[in-house]
């Protein structure tokens, strides 16, 4: 998104830094760079993550992201399904900008893409980006029950009322991010290939390339009604606690070749391979994690289609049980009403029989 584009380039890691940190003005150079321009705050140097709170106050606060989602402690609740609007960009004439900002690969998105139904307000898309590990080392930011996934995609949105990602970044309700875990499957994912096939064109830090628009909805799981929800933060400095996180339960599968492309193609300065660009999990500090789906099956594996089928079967079974229970109740009630009615009819019949009897005195007839 002049200055706005620079802002987005710096913050694509999970979202954007805002204008101030610990009461002082933050310049673009201060965010992730020293005076020489060399990166000092990137995810690639895990030891630096422990120092973030020294320079950025919010990084040491109690509502930080990412987290390890513990399904056993999550609360099942009635949350609406996510309903993206305007995500199909195939009819859009303007191409999309793909870029390597030295922290991740980012695709800038038009703000005509929105999400609303599951949120209290309208959010507009700004960009999407990825987090990954290295060969044999998974690199998702969020974890589930201690498991880290090979990679994770974040689709970043800002609250419409703030007008831009930059203005929304440090507001408590400013951002909404959709997170999807990526796993390795047997087939090439055609939607992700529309992105990954251009990674070589942005292999050097600072590279940009225009790519044809496509249906962004294809990057998300089929079932958008199954997700975890919690309040958190940007996963890079200045770590503003401004994000409503939606992390989908169902994963997306990409091929091993596609994952290898993500892990090995992009470079930082000095020709270093860009990898392991994730922040370590942060403590919940008493925050609640909500789940929009049935959590009764504690042993199911994240993203396992069988788990979803199991939940659906359970739901259907519960529905059938309710239906049969109602039918049984109605039948029993009808039977009771019938019996009571029949008894009343019998009692009435007996009374009527007795009231119609005319008493006659017995007489004897004498024969001559």
Backbone shape: elongated
How many beta-strand segments? 17
Proportion of residues in helical segments: 10-25%
Radius of gyration from the CA trace?
Answer: 32 Å
Protein name: Carbonic anhydrase
Cofactor: Zn(2+)
GO molecular function, one term: carbonate dehydratase activity
InterPro entries: CA_dom, CA_dom_sf, Carbonic_anhydrase_a-class, Carbonic_anhydrase_a-class_CS
Q: What report would you give on this structure?
A:
This protein is an alpha+beta fold and 368 residues long. It has two domains: 3-299, Carbonic Anhydrase II (Roll), CATH 3.10.200.10; 304-351. It has seven helices and 17 strands. Strand 7 and strand 8 form a beta hairpin. It starts with a helix and ends in a 13-residue tail after the last helix. Residues 24-53 are annotated as: Disordered.
Name the descriptors:
368 residues; alpha+beta; Carbonic Anhydrase II; 2 domains; 12-stranded mixed β-sheet; elongated; disordered C terminus; zinc; signal
